[in-house]
Amino acid sequence: MRHVTDVDHAELARALAAVVGPGHVLADDELRAPFQTDWTGRFAGRAALVVRPADGGEVARVLAACHERRIPVVPQGGNTGLVGASVPRGGEVVLSLARLGALGPVDRASGQVEAGAGVTLAALQSHARDAGLDAGVDFASRDSATLGGLVATDAGGTRAVRHGTVRARIAGLEAILADGTVIDRRSGLLKDNAGYALDALIAGSEGTLAVVTRVRWRLVARLPARVAALVPLGGLGEAAALLAVLRPALPSLEAIEFLLDDGLQLVMDHLHLPAPVPERRPAYVLVECAARADPTEELAEALGAAGVQDAVVATDTAERERLWRFREAHTEAISAAGVPHKLDVGVPLERLADFAARVPAAVAEAAPGARTILFGHLGDGNVHVNVLGAPPGDPALDEAVLRLVAACGGTISAEHGVGVAKAAWLHLIRPPGELAAMAAIKAALDPRGILNPGAVLAPGSAAPPR
């Protein structure tokens, strides 16, 4: 791979403009700026150029041109990533997929729809609901997060407890390898075990193996009857016990989230909202059930069986959205309080309370005076660790928290991805044999190492480019 300082930017711009048109190759500093900093403000870099292809064919030709010249490329969707994998680090070409916005008709018989990588999650949800179905995935950044990015990170969100992560929603995809080779696995067949599942491999690879350009999305039934409840608890230990009762008793369970009182207070202060419960407690669980018929009685019986007496129940849409605001506004409130150091991790449910209790001390040792806010998806043990008041790029903080995660038998990334933020710590949870296998796959599909260099696999862990 060439050093970016060796690149003839004018020649490269002409070559890419011949593919996508001059108006879609951005060289001006001001035009490139929105593509060069991530959503958190923690990760930023300078792009050689930003190129905006219109379809998979143009993506293939752009990649072929960059591959020929050994020029590194960073794919970018809605730029809502939190681990630095979608912004340039040192003069790469940013490949924006925002123009790949085609959205096909819903195939109601198969329960599938084809969508371009630039389609937002909100647009997919609306399109599916108009056909009586749903996307099966949801999270707060739905209006800007795009499907290509969701597939690239195997995103999870609040509905994963029922519908799985994005990989479970993929019925097929189109992706472009580093040299411009097109991989088209969009048959949509439920049963197709002929050879390796390349689409499953590309999902979650964070743009390091291929660039996703089109997805055949597996939809779920639209369930209009919903009820939510916010349950105050004495601590996260009670949360795991509550889930043990609710999961087998609630076939309608669609989401189960947790938040702590300090995070609730931060949201209340940021949005100027009153407390959602009469009496504050150390921890809270937000439950939502969805079914064709009203699941309120089913939820009430399950909560009663768990010994819950003081839950706040919301049966109408406005009240449910009010309760969800306290959970979904965490990210917004945290970012308003400062530039956060974010760590998305997962721990076994039986270790959740222990992990949450030990995180503040681990953070304080690495960054004295820092403030820790935890929240996440109880149903899958996914914890979002947010630290305020610490240097955003402090590796000592990552080291402390991620080693604690590994000691608890967890994972350093549950849904945001490894990116560049956590690549140096992947060895904590993946033994040498697995890392070698990953490096071999990377070298086979991207032999010149141009796709998202430095993401997922730390520099030096992959086979040398050829």
In short:
The chain is α+β, with helices and mostly antiparallel strands.
State the main characteristics.
Uridine Diphospho-n-acetylenolpyruvylglucosamine Reductase, domain 2, Uridine Diphospho-n-acetylenolpyruvylglucosamine Reductase, domain 3, Alpha-Beta Plaits, 15 helices, 4-stranded mixed β-sheet, alpha+beta, 4 domains, 466 residues
Tell me about this structure.
The protein is α+β, with helices and mostly antiparallel strands and 466 residues long. It has four domains: 4-96, Uridine Diphospho-n-acetylenolpyruvylglucosamine Reductase, domain 2 (2-Layer Sandwich), CATH 3.30.43.10; 112-221, 2-Layer Sandwich (Uridine Diphospho-n-acetylenolpyruvylglucosamine Reductase, domain 3); 225-330, Alpha-Beta Plaits, CATH 3.30.70.2190; 338-427, Alpha-Beta Plaits (2-Layer Sandwich), CATH 3.30.70.2740. Helices cover 33% and strands 19% of the residues. The protein contains 15 helices and 17 strands. It has a seven-stranded antiparallel beta sheet with strand order 14-11-13-12-16-17-15, sandwiched between helices. Strands 1-2-4-3 form a four-stranded mixed beta sheet. Helix 1 (9-20) packs antiparallel against helix 3 and helix 8 packs across helix 10 (296-305). 52% of the residues are buried. The model has no long low-confidence stretch (mean pLDDT 94).
